[in-house]
């Protein structure tokens, strides 16, 4: 039982990170119907930005309180990563809006290659380890919960609450939902569609940057190629939850996190990704539009 | 970037004013993007801790370049393109007016002269100019050759356009012969010709043709049937491992295992096809991606059979139907049979023709299938699934045949790949490969075989050509490795080509079914490809 709860906690931590990334996928998909393949690499850029900020802080000040350091890392990462996603949207996706479905997909894959190789060229191909930032571990009745895990879950929960408020209670969120339902109609009603889409990209990137910072803090290492696997898994999570649905993305992220930690705990660590992908395939066979996704109504 | 300035201000501002403003924006954005990534470099110090090394001059250079580029583009590039467009419409010579100015007879003669002079001096270039300048001279020679070839193509463009397929196949068929002959003349001996041809036949010829074949195979699934497959490389892997395992363990010949690998890949295609039949669009895409990853992870982790990440080596070579062998130790080794000097180049040239044959087979099958009921059903399915169903097309079998046929060609290409490398490992079958193949299909103009071949040649040939830029080391110092920039430039090229030509290189479609006459239609009229 203790072992199980322990795995549940590990899964929750992992799932939170996937959920944060998955939101970026699902929002972009919801609003312009495109798979933003570069999102995984945006996450990696976020983690790298956090790493560099961490090193700058270390070089400039003798010691910075961990909370302050984390906060600064997160904010800078959010800003700069958003700038990346905003630029990418302008350069690579906007000119292709209204073009056929696969064109933006290809530029997204191209951008993903560009981003990871850009980081490789500028920062070198090696793994970049940092000393552990937070190392406290609590022991509650034989279950060890590290402070890192608590930070991840709390930050994720806070951000999700903020995000939920943004989407459901502000005019910006209303504009986003309007664009999602019918872009042409939204434009007719005076919503600046281009701006709304840009903001969607910025928001997705900001969440991915937070996920990147948390990832860096949790694992203490990042490399230029680390964007792909979390990116694919987050995308899997978004699809599993029903792409286009925000609660679905979080739910899918948590599910993938649980599957992974349970599978590596009880079966084999080598095949944890195989398990996650297989379960995705099985779920989609029975629920072809994900768990919370709305089935596509097709009109003739 | 469009949309950064409001239109009212654009009318008032002169191009230069506008360009200055845009350049400032671009500079600010570039500063934000690059300040941490180019301005600072993370490096390990002696005690293995990460430290930051500032690179401010480089950052400044990059930002200034970005601003200058943006400035010149907005101030001179955009007005030039706009006026060009007007001129083109006025003269009715659409892309010709720039091109005719660019390709002129005097320039052509000058290019030939440069090539001739530099080729005559080839041996003494290093001593004459020193190694640094000689590198530039070789680069200039390569540019001149490309220019001369391009002008020849340009002058005969209408002829080439009319007979593209025949000319293309003929050119591919004589390519190794020409390479060997040219290099033999150059080096003065036949053996030298064969030795020098290795790079050209293997790195360029075979490499490009493998991708052509893969892209043509994927084209059946994506371009014809309209099913987005992001895990195509899985079938490539199945074919490669089928040949590698059966060939090394049971010693079966390539000619038996080629169809076997194709059949096995087709079987896996059906296996993948079954569960995903109900899925559409992007759900299908993610499941195929997951399938590709599952295959790769199994190859990595099932160590007893696949030898894990270490891969399988010592895969037997292909023989010429058992008559002529390419193993030096065999009694029927090609050099012994024909009594010629030993060289590894014979095998490469043989492989070149083998993959060319496989490519042509793929093209032939695709062209014929498009005229058969199943091919028509694929294209109908791509355009409208509901209409298909109401017309009585069995969508299940149609989708499954598309998956199986596409997978089969992937399997063929895979077993060829294993035979060519002599070594397979899961490293070769990562998602990036699937993405590259898909990109080639889309960049070529989905469904168009010629367009796809051109796209493969440009993208794969281009990245291979980037391996030849070693002389840049003299410019940027010995630490500079052009290799690193290959994939970066590849990704950029993908984005630029796609934005420039969203419909791919060949934007028009030739229908197979027509009422009175065959008439090509614009690709924009079809949903995702051929019409």
TrEMBL record, chain A:
Where do transmembrane segments lie in this chain?
12-35, 42-62, 68-88, 100-119, 149-167, 199-222, 234-259, 271-292
Q: Name one GO molecular function term.
A: L-phenylalanine transmembrane transporter activity
Signal sequence residues: none
Family, according to the entry, reads as follows:
Belongs to the binding-protein-dependent transport system permease family. LivHM subfamily.
Which processes are annotated in GO (biological process)?
D-alanine transmembrane transport; L-alanine transport; L-isoleucine import across plasma membrane
Bilayer topology term: Multi-pass membrane protein
Give the UniProt keywords, A-Z: Amino-acid transport, Cell inner membrane, Cell membrane, Membrane, Transmembrane, Transmembrane helix, Transport
Does this entry carry the keyword Transmembrane helix? yes
The protein depicted here goes by the name General L-amino acid ABC transporter membrane protein
| Record flagged with keyword Electron transport | no
Q: Which GO terms describe its cellular component?
A: plasma membrane
Q: Where found, per UniProt?
A: Cell membrane
Task: Write down the InterPro entries for this protein, in alphabetical order.
Answer: ABC_transp_permease, BCAA_transport_permease
CDD domains (UniProt xref): TM_PBP1_LivH_like (cd06582)
Q: One of this protein's Pfam families, by short name?
A: BPD_transp_2
From TrEMBL, chain B:
Reply yes or no: does the keyword Membrane apply: yes
One GO CC term on file: plasma membrane
* InterPro entries to which the protein is assigned, alphabetical: ABC_transp_permease, LivHM_N, LivM-like
Domain High-affinity branched-chain amino acid transport system permease LivHM N-terminal, residue spans: 21-117
MF annotations from Gene Ontology: branched-chain amino acid transmembrane transporter activity
What is the official name of this protein in its record?
Answer: Branched-chain amino acid transport system permease protein
Q: Membrane-spanning residues where?
A: 23-40, 52-73, 105-123, 135-156, 162-187, 208-228, 240-271, 283-302, 308-328, 349-369, 400-418, 430-463, 483-500
- Location of the protein in the cell: Cell membrane
Swiss-Prot/TrEMBL keywords: Cell membrane, Membrane, Transmembrane, Transmembrane helix
* Keyword Secreted (UniProt): no
Grouped into one coarse class, the protein's main location is membrane
Q: How does it sit in the membrane?
A: Multi-pass membrane protein
């Amino acid at each position: 039982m203790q072992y199980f709860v322990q795995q549940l906690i590990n899964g929750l931590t992992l799932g939170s990170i996937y959920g944060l990334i998955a939101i970026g996928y699902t929002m972009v998909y919801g609003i312009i119907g495109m798979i933003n393949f570069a999102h995984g690499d945006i996450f990696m850029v976020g983690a790298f930005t956090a790493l560099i900020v961490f090193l700058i802080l270390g070089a400039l000040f003798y010691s910075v309180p961990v909370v302050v350091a984390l906060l600064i890392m997160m904010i800078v990462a959010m800003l700069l990563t958003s700038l990346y996603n905003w630029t990418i949207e302008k350069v690579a996706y906007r000119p292709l809006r209204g073009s056929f479905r696969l064109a933006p997909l290809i530029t997204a894959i191209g951008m993903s290659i560009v981003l990871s190789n850009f980081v490789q060229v500028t920062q070198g191909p090696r793994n970049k380890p940092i000393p552990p930032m937070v190392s406290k571990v609590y022991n509650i009745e034989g279950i060890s919960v590290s402070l890192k895990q608590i930070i991840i879950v709390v930050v994720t929960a806070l951000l999700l609450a903020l995000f939920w408020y943004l989407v459901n209670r502000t005019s910006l969120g209303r504009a986003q939902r309007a664009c999602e339902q019918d872009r042409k109609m939204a434009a007719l009603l005076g919503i600046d569609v281009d701006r709304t889409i840009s903001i969607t990209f910025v928001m997705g990137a900001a969440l991915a940057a937070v996920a990147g910072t948390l990832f860096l803090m949790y694992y203490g290492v990042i490399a230029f190629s680390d964007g792909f696997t979390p990116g694919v898994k987050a995308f899997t999570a978004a699809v599993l939850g029903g792409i286009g649905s925000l609660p679905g993305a979080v739910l899918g992220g948590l599910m993938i996190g649980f599957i992974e930690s349970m599978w590596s705990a009880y079966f084999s660590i080598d095949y944890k990704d195989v398990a996650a992908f297989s379960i995705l395939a099985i779920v989609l066979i029975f629920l072809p539009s994900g768990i919370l996704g709305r089935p596509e109504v097709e009109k003739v | 970037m469009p949309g950064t300035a409001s239109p009212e201000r654009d009318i008032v501002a002169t191009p230069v004013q506008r360009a200055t403003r845009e350049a400032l924006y671009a500079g600010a954005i570039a500063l934000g993007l690059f300040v941490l990534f180019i301005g600072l470099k993370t490096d390990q110090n002696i005690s293995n801790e990460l430290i930051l090394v500032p690179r401010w001059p480089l950052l400044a250079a990059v930002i200034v370049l970005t601003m200058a580029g943006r400035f010149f583009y907005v101030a001179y590039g955009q007005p030039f393109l706009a006026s060009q467009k007007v001129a083109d419409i006025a003269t009715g010579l659409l892309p010709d007016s720039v091109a005719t100015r660019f390709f002129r007879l005097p320039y052509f003669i000058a290019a030939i002269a440069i090539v001739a002079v530099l080729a005559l001096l080839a041996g003494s270039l290093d001593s004459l100019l020193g190694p640094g300048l000689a590198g530039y001279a070789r680069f200039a020679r390569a540019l001149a050759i490309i220019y001369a070839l391009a002008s020849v193509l340009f002058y005969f463009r209408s002829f080439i356009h009319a007979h593209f397929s025949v000319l293309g196949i003929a050119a591919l068929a004589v390519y190794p012969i020409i390479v060997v002959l040219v290099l033999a003349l150059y080096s003065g001996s036949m053996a030298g010709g064969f030795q020098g041809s290795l790079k050209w036949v293997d790195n360029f010829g075979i490499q490009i043709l493998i991708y052509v074949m893969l892209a043509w195979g994927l084209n059946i699934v994506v371009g014809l049937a309209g099913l987005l497959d992001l895990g195509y490389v899985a079938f490539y892997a199945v074919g490669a491992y089928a040949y590698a395992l059966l060939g090394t363990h049971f010693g079966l010949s390539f000619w038996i295992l080629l169809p076997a690998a194709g059949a096995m890949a087709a079987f896996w295609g059906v296996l993948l096809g079954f569960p995903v039949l109900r899925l559409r669009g992007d759900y299908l895409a993610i499941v195929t991606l997951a399938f590709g990853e599952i295959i790769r992870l199994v190859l990595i982790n099932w160590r007893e059979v696949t030898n894990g990440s270490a891969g399988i080596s010592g895969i037997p070579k292909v023989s010429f139907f058992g008559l002529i062998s390419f193993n030096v130790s065999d009694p029927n080794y090609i050099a012994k049979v024909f009594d010629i000097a030993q060289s590894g180049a014979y095998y490469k040239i043989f492989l070149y023709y083998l993959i060319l044959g496989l490519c042509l087979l793929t093209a032939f099958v695709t062209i014929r299938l498009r005229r058969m009921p199943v091919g028509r059903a694929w294209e109908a399915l791509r355009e409208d699934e509901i209409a298909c169903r109401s017309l009585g097309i069995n969508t299940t079998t149609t989708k499954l045949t598309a998956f199986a046929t596409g997978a089969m060609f992937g399997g063929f290409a895979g077993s060829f790949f294993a035979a060519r490398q002599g070594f397979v490992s899961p490293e070769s079958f990562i998602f990036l490969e699937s993405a590259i193949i898909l990109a080639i299909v889309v960049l070529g103009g989905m469904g168009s075989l010629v367009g796809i071949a051109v796209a493969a040649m440009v993208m794969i040939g281009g990245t291979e050509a980037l391996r030849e830029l070693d002389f840049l080391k003299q410019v940027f110092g010995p630490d500079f490795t052009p290799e690193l920039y290959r994939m970066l430039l590849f990704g950029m090229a993908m984005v630029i080509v796609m934005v420039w030509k969203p419909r791919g290189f060949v934007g028009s479609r030739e229908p197979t079914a027509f009422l009175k006459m065959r008439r090509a239609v614009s690709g924009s009229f079809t949903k995702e490809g051929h019409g």
